């Protein structure tokens, strides 16, 4: 049974939370070497938008266009993931018409799954390598993860206080991928008052970018096996943050 818990947001977000605008690649580093933080591609012109308050999509509407070569079955699969994000928040995904000046170009280029982080008044990217359905980039949770990048989320383990919750085992990280474990300062990322969330759909898995098969992210608390790095569903905290980020009037969190 589903319980809908409607929480009034008592506190609105004070001030702006500013997020560097980049493109995030998902944690298949082998597929996307050389990119910032695994599934991130820096957009050089907005790399320094640290004090830019407008990195959310205006009115919570994410405009998108499917680029050529994405078949109808895949479009439906992507739309289904969009629907899940919409159901848990007040954001909307709308197919852009020809006059729309800014939108996400949803592409199917080889080389991984990645997305621009946050809103840019331009054409941004969400790429999903055309894997078979329910594999690789074409897993609903993976697409939701990328959509959250599009909406302005960074990886969970990038947050400023992550060292209180996890240890990055650099000794096990592939040398070329050390930068994938970047940490952002408090000025750069906003936690909306929510505590560290091991179960976020935005958290890397314990073996991300491992050089030797050993853990690269070691939780400092006892957590359920499989929690960290899950790509099954938005966590409650993910939903709360998304709702706060987009100032949704009512927060609907499903059990
Ligand atoms: C979208 O991406 C595709 C594939 O990379 C590219 O061919 C196309 O020109 C892009 N569309 C726009 C509007 O940028």
UniProtKB/TrEMBL annotation:
Domain called Peptidase M12A: residue spans: 48-249
Positions contributing to Zn(2+) binding: 145, 149, 155
Entry annotated with the keyword Amino-acid biosynthesis: no
SMART domains, A to Z: ZnMc (SM00235)
Active-site residue numbers: 146
Top EC class, one word: hydrolase
Any one Gene Ontology BP term: proteolysis
Signal peptide: 1-18
Record EC number: 3.4.24.-
Cofactors, names only: Zn(2+)
UniProt-listed InterPro entries: Astacin-like_dom (IPR034035), MetalloPept_cat_dom_sf (IPR024079), Peptidase_M12A (IPR001506), Peptidase_Metallo (IPR006026)
Superkingdom: Eukaryota
GO molecular function terms attached to this record: metalloendopeptidase activity; zinc ion binding
Keywords for this protein: Hydrolase, Metal-binding, Metalloprotease, Protease, Signal, Zinc
Protein name from the UniProt record: Metalloendopeptidase
């Amino acid at each position: 049974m589903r319980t809908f818990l409607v929480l009034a947001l008592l506190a609105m977000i004070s001030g702006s939370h500013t997020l560097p605008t980049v493109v995030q690649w998902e944690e298949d580093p082998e597929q996307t070497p050389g990119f910032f933080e695994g599934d991130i591609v820096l957009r050089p012109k907005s790399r320094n938008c640290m004090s830019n308050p407008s990195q959310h999509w205006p009115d919570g509407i994410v405009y998108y266009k499917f680029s050529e070569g994405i078949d109808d079955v895949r479009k439906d699969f992507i739309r289904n993931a969009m629907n899940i994000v919409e159901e848990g928040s007040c954001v909307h995904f709308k197919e852009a018409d020809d006059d729309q000046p800014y939108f996400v170009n949803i592409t199917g280029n080889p080389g991984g799954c990645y997305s621009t982080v946050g809103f840019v008044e331009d054409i941004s990217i969400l790429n999903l390598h055309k894997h078979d359905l329910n594999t690789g980039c074409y897993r609903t949770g993976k697409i939701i993860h990328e959509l959250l990048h599009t909406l302005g989320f960074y990886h969970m383990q990038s947050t400023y206080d992550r060292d209180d919750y996890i240890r990055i085992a650099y000794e096990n990280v592939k040398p070329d991928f050390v930068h994938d474990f970047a940490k952002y300062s408090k000025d750069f990322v906003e936690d909306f008052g929510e505590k560290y969330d091991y179960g976020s759909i935005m958290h890397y898995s314990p073996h991300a970018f491992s050089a030797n098969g050993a853990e690269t992210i070691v939780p400092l608390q006892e957590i359920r096996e499989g929690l960290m790095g899950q790509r099954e569903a938005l966590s409650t905290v993910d939903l709360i943050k998304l709702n706060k980020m987009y100032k949704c009037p009512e927060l609907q969190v499903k059990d």
